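Dock S-adenosylmethionine; give full complex structure.
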Amino acid sequence: MAGSQNKKGSSGRSYRGNAGLTNKVQKKRGLSASSRRWIERQINDPFVAEARSRGFRSRAALKLEQINSKYQLFKKGQTVLDLGSAPGGWLQIVSDIIGLDEGNGRLAGIDLLDVEPVAGALILKGDINDNAKLDELIAYIGGKADWVISDMAADTTGHRATDHIRTTALLEMALDTAMRVLIPGGGFLAKCFQGGAEKSTLTTLRQGFEQVRHVKPDASRAESVEIYVLATGFKGVPENYLMLEH
Ligand SMILES: C[S@@+](CC[C@H](N)C(=O)[O-])C[C@H]1O[C@@H](n2cnc3c(N)ncnc32)[C@H](O)[C@@H]1O
């Protein structure tokens, strides 16, 4: 059984899969069953423990680290736009690789939620659909980026089709932003919930980039419909692509 096998964390440490849950949260009044399950998953999740012990703000940081170590996305001195940044795990990873604290590269991010500052990065609080915010981000990076990365996800409703459509709309917005700012040869990495509606976005990606892959890092829960699309070698905006109203 997959869940009871030993696996290796990004740090190389072995751990038991999630089915080997050991810590249980006691039933308490006021705590719903789903909240209790969420807490149990958090306290038993080896990636949560690893992220915390390494000083990352989120377990999502490990997903990006794993994708980067397999595909070598980022290089020192590059310009990166991070959409859906809170609490800031991806910003930490990118800042480190591009050498932001030594004055190399450029990094800008945006989220609906507050994000603790990251030295040298511009982080806006707001909605990616807000034109004024988007313009501010684009101006900060001088209109050009080597990478647009998006981990944006809408709050889940529990209704799978609704969640899929809402997250796919964010994927479209992220891709539209990428089309505006990527330099030739640039790359795009974005969260995607599998479910059908993302197909037209994938068609656009295949037209606009040399290579499009689906990646699922170990730190992405196996039971989740989440995957990441990784598109590299930006060729330019496809002829039939309609930019979103801006
Ligand atoms: C999975 S979290 C991102 C985690 C982050 N990559 C990290 O490493 O810490 C998804 C984020 O997307 C943000 N988000 C969702 N819709 C958004 C929107 N329309 N504009 C900006 N951010 C949005 C949410 O507020 C949430 O913080």
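Observed: The CA atoms of residues 34 and 40 lie 10 Å apart.
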